[in-house]
């Protein structure tokens, strides 16, 4: 609507008190408003928005709001509500009065509300709101008026007042304002009850304006309120007009309206204006002159004609308002009661009398407001209005209504559950231990359900997953355990149907031999008891059977028997014998399978005695003897032998060695020449010493002939040498039988001594120096020859240096071409010696030849590549794979030291695009370059539903507990004493100190402290009277705990002096008692 002219503005500010009270917009007179503004015109210290006075009907609600800015406040201000001067309303909060407070973090604004519910007449009066913060204070007063309900008194209906004064006459459409100026009885129409819309708007809460406007067909509510407010003006006697226009006219859409003014002077020129623009005659606007009357007709009124009109005559004008009312929208096709099933789409349809009319939908009296997250949608197709409910539930069962300006239609919607059909029931399962359990069922409806095990709800975990996809429900348990066995039931929500299944977890029997040797051998000493316990497992518990040589070992009381237990099987052998050695078999069997194991039992004993020893050689006081090991070593290896000897005529044996002799040869010494001796042997194993062997044959020690003397060469020819010598100086008792001559070759044959580290391949990296020293022997100086791979060595690349005792091969800077087999030959006359050395020079490998992306699925990428052409003269030990996001191209290592030529890269980010590259690796390290994939891998989004993890709040509550107790203490009379302990608990416990079970309260001789859980009781200058039992008691909501100690007060300086000198308190106490008994007066 165009803005009014300047003159109109001047008229708007005219005093509105001359207007009839029926046209008041619910605002107080200007004088009262001015008084209230002056009362609250003081500069607000804390309030940003003050509560304003208001009016309410009996039984209705009203809310008063106060706002305080929190920018300069460190904490929340204190707000109090009062009625009158002294009644604090905080104590009156309840059914009819509620106090609320909120804080908006973005605007940092405190909002305080006082809501009066179902107001009564005695609630009227003056109210006051006070806010305080530290030294700041602010207050505001406001009034509440409570009126009786106007339902029983006749009221003025603005729509009845806005009626045409005649019908079918020339002045049809003229409004009769007499109904606005005086009270009159209004006849009730049968079609609709009389309702004063203006009174409703005047007394209603502003938040209800739109609802009232919709219900009573007011299309331009804001314009109506604004224009009615502007109409407050004082009627003046006009010199130009004998009769002015009525204040307002109302006409139905499409109707005709007649404006009439009567001039005091018919000669005056009259002009008609609409919103400040002059109206020209046309088929729509028709002007007539009848004497002093000036008439304007407006035909076919539309909503655009709803505006302000005025007429000028000379310098004066008079104005009016035209209200165009749309005809009420009628419901031509009613809603129908509907029945639907849960999950279905429901459409409630009605038809109205006009296209694209405004229709509001209600559910059980509450308006339905569709939104992006709402399941309700409203579709309009011309005159059809349809309410669509997606995925109906039982909560949608209600009464729905469609309301228009001319009526409403209601229907009932009943949503029931569909009959449930079990398409695939749960089946009983028998699963091996460690395998996956998958319980699957399919029902006819896509609804949720609950799983239970043995009557208890199933809780999801990393191992147990509940899957619901459409009509299929799964319970998946990875790595089945024995505790997973039980009765499982799936119960669909909202149905009484259950789907049961039994899960039986079995485990094939297993024999656990971890405690035995690698060859499953058990050793037992002959004569002792063997109890061999073998752990077993299996579900159900298997049956164990022991056997030996196809003969079962029964359970019973025999010397060899078996014993069975739930988790083990035991073989018992009482008084083990040598014949018990052998292989024993254990067989396990249950419904899941069988298991078999063999255990070797070895019974060990003392070894048999060796056979009689043989004396092979004798000397003047020694001999050499040997013997054979015993035929039976007792089941345990022979550790050595003890040797004894005696004179043949004696019966006393003497041990010759105290350390075991490991060999079967021994040399006894320090014997008497010419005396006959005998020797015998004892065998020793881990069990003990065997019986002695039979004695050897007697032998007599004899002296040995000394070497010849004065050996010399007498003559030499080409083929002969003549030698001379003298007989030995000493010839033994055995006499001299002859001489033996020997000769040897002069010089040394060649021999190469290869160092140990060169007996294997000698490896060096490219660029490193090679310096090898190979020692050799030979006389005279041998000839040396070096060859590489059968060819002579190029001395320009490899330096060879020889000496009399060694040869050195030196390469300053090794290259890969220096790799090969080096042969060394050493020659002395006709004798030769050869040796070989393998030298390998290695370098970094080249990159892989090609890298390809084989497949992309989910968050995974499969890669493959071919080995490099150049391996760096060393075996490829692995590969390193890296990835890079296409956006940043920053490389990150994914896998290192990978041996295969294909790999799967996992845990990639959905929505990113990746490149990959691969490095080769050998003993020298990674290749300098890498081979990158030509194409990239895009990790596409597959619509996975992210399920937020559920975190349970940790319960920090704890009953009180003393972490450091009280200790018995000695105190010195006249010196302050303290008792200390520490306690913890949540909520923070209350601490109480007691002396001899009596609480210490308000006693100036005691001071109590508590800091960070450390509780301290200070006793000021105690006397012997203060001694006794002290108790610290801690209490919170979860429990109570007490702790006690004894305090003993010693009097006088003697005790202090003795204590400082280090005398123990018990000795001081005894001393003081003796002193007190001897001199009680002095003490």
TrEMBL record:
It comes from the Eukaryota. PROSITE patterns: FN3, IG_LIKE. SUPFAM superfamilies: Fibronectin type III, Immunoglobulin. SMART domains: FN3, IG, IGc2. The keyword Ribonucleoprotein does not apply. It holds the Pfam family THB. Keywords: Actin-binding, Cell adhesion, Disulfide bond, Immunoglobulin domain, Muscle protein, Phosphoprotein, Repeat, Thick filament. Residues 609-708, 847-942 form the Fibronectin type-III domain. Residues 327-414, 419-488, 509-602, 750-838, 960-1048 form the Ig-like domain. GO terms for molecular function: actin binding; myosin binding; structural constituent of muscle. GO terms for biological process: cell adhesion; sarcomere organization. InterPro entries: FN3_dom, FN3_sf, Ig-like_dom, Ig-like_dom_sf, Ig-like_fold, Ig_I-set, Ig_sub, Ig_sub2. Gene3D superfamilies: Immunoglobulins. The keyword Disulfide bond applies. Residues 1-40 are annotated as: Disordered. One of its GO terms (cellular component) is M band. Belongs to the immunoglobulin superfamily. MyBP family. This is Myosin binding protein C1. It comes from Saimiri boliviensis boliviensis (Bolivian squirrel monkey). The lineage of its organism: Eukaryota, Metazoa, Chordata, Craniata, Vertebrata.
